[in-house]
Amino acid sequence: MAVEGTSTKKLEGGKTENSMSSIAAYYNGKSVLVTGATGFMGKVLMEKLLRSSPDVKAVYILVRPKAGQSTEERVVDLVKCKIFDRVREEWPNFHEKIKPINAELTQPNLAITPADTQELISEVNIVFHCAATVRFDEPLKHALLLNVMGTQQLLLLAHQMQKLEAFIHISTAYANCNRRYIEEIIYPPPVEPRKLFDLVEWMDESLIQEITPKLIGDWPNTYTFTKALTEYLVQQEKGNLNAAIIRPSIVGASWQEPFPGWIDNFNGTSGFLIAAGKGIIRTVKCNLDAVADIVPVDVAINITLAAGWYTAVHRPSSMLIYNCTTGGINPFCWGEMEYHVISTYKRNPLEKAFRIPCANMTSNYLMYQYWTAVSHKAPAFLYDLYLRLTGRKPRMMKIFSRLEKNMTLLEYFTSRTWEWNSDNMNMLMSQLSPKDKKLFCFDVRQMHWSEYIENYCLGTKKYLLNEDMAGIPAAKKHLRKLRNIQYAFNTTLLVIIWRIFIARSQMAQNIWYFVVNLCYKFLNYFRASSTLRH
């Protein structure tokens, strides 16, 4: 299902469809600064902005050299991404709008050159701060540097910007996950960010790691803790800036734009979907009745762009926070997800699956331990043994260990349900024109979860694993082969169990021989019938 009216085709009188959109019209002629542009949400934001507002003056992006690639090389790779195929078709020279700035969030003044700093100060009209470390197990000091101090440095730069109209910070709905009911307000953190900066500055890394559990208190990880600190910091240091905070929950594949099911990283639920589709993961510890608060990435970006427009044009008297969630509006449980994921991967299997897709979700600790031993550890051990015997390097136990660690990190979020206040999101929706409600749709009441999850699973196949849909018949054939192997293994195991543990009496042996004889006769009859037909 595509969003109606996202193209910019000509209408009567020379107007374009997007010229009827207040939001799209606002960004035309503006200079926008985006941090985290090479990340998942940053890419989607850039694509939607460039496609919906082709006359945007410039999109400045902060990029740092990484993995042996220069800033320029990273940007060249960025604009080649498939996500830009639609905007590339409509506006082939879209990349000319992108202005990379060499920067490093963890450094003083963001390590931006004086010349680039001056250009940003004199040109930028709106800032979208998407950059952050999203690792749950990030060491506290590094999470503070990236998420909190980086935001502080960006705020200092924003205060110097002469034409700035709005500063939009992307947080997370789980910044205050230590509460069950979360309003669209800033909650005071347990410690002042500046005091924590001073504390970790002189401490040894090992000592910081040792006291981290006490510092973060009832937050489950350093990511949510530092996001809470960052929200408070934005409130305290925004001064006279027109600012807003967007809080998306678990960000998943796109719902509609630029393509249904588009995804480009293995973070969050995406990696587990692939592991389930490959038959690697077969048991997950979670509460089946807990709400899977997944929000499509295009929904999060649409509300971000809409909030940017509203903040700049209407200038609210106080900073608005938007809880961008689905649980309170269109709830969907983890137990429902299990069915849709497995059925989709059976109809559209991934290539070279390890086992037939199958899932067992449980909140019972003992059952989870049992199924982990039977469905994960034992097969992994046997497969690694087979690899060793054939002269290859064992790898499956390492894969399972890594997945189990990630599942442990996610368990906090798959075993609880939160209530979210969404008054500001509803207010923003009421401010949109009918055209804007279509172009920048974030009304998740319209979303059908079965269709979304199917597209999500297909997206992992097409966009993450780069598998051709034409290969589905071969993948199904591979699944049939795995099923036959499974039947043969189960039969052999049953025979061994029978012979060792059951066949101790004459009666048991008589039953055994009767069953074997019956099977033999059936096979002979089947073979004879087959010969007669041919």
Keywords:
single chain, 534 residues, alpha/beta, Rossmann fold, 2 domains, 7-stranded parallel β-sheet, two-stranded parallel ribbon, 19 helices, disordered N terminus
Descriptive notes:
- It is a single chain.
- This protein is of the alpha/beta class.
- It has 2 domains: 12-262 and 294-331 and 419-444, NAD(P)-binding Rossmann-like Domain (Rossmann fold, 3-Layer(aba) Sandwich); 471-533.
- It is 52% helix and 10% strand.
- The chain is built from 19 helices and 13 strands.
- It has helices spanning 22-27, 40-52, 71-79, 85-90, 114-123, 140-160, 193-202, 205-216, 222-237, 269-277, 297-314, 334-347, 365-389, 396-414, 423-430, 434-439, 449-464, 472-502, 506-533; strands at residues 31-35, 58-63, 98-102, 126-129, 166-170, 181-182, 243-248, 250-252, 283-285, 294-296, 320-324, 360-362, 419-420.
- Strands 3-2-1-4-5-7-11 form a 7-stranded parallel beta sheet, sandwiched between helices. A two-stranded parallel sheet has the order 6-13.
- Helix 6 links the parallel strand 4 and strand 5.
- Helix 2 (40-52) packs across helix 11 (297-314), helix 6 packs across helix 7 and helix 10 (269-277) crosses helix 17.
- The model is unreliable at 1-17 (pLDDT under 50).
| Rounded mean pLDDT score | 87
- Spatial arrangement of strands, main beta sheet: 3-2-1-4-5-7-11
Backbone shape: elongated
CATH architecture of the largest domain: 3-Layer(aba) Sandwich
Overall CATH class of the largest domain: Alpha Beta
Question: Which class of secondary structure composition applies to the elements?
Answer: alpha/beta
Q: Give the beta-strand count.
A: 13
The CATH homologous superfamily of the largest domain is termed NAD(P)-binding Rossmann-like Domain
The residue ranges in which pLDDT falls below 50 over 5 or more consecutive positions are 1-17
Taking the alpha carbons of the first and last residues, their distance comes to 49 Å
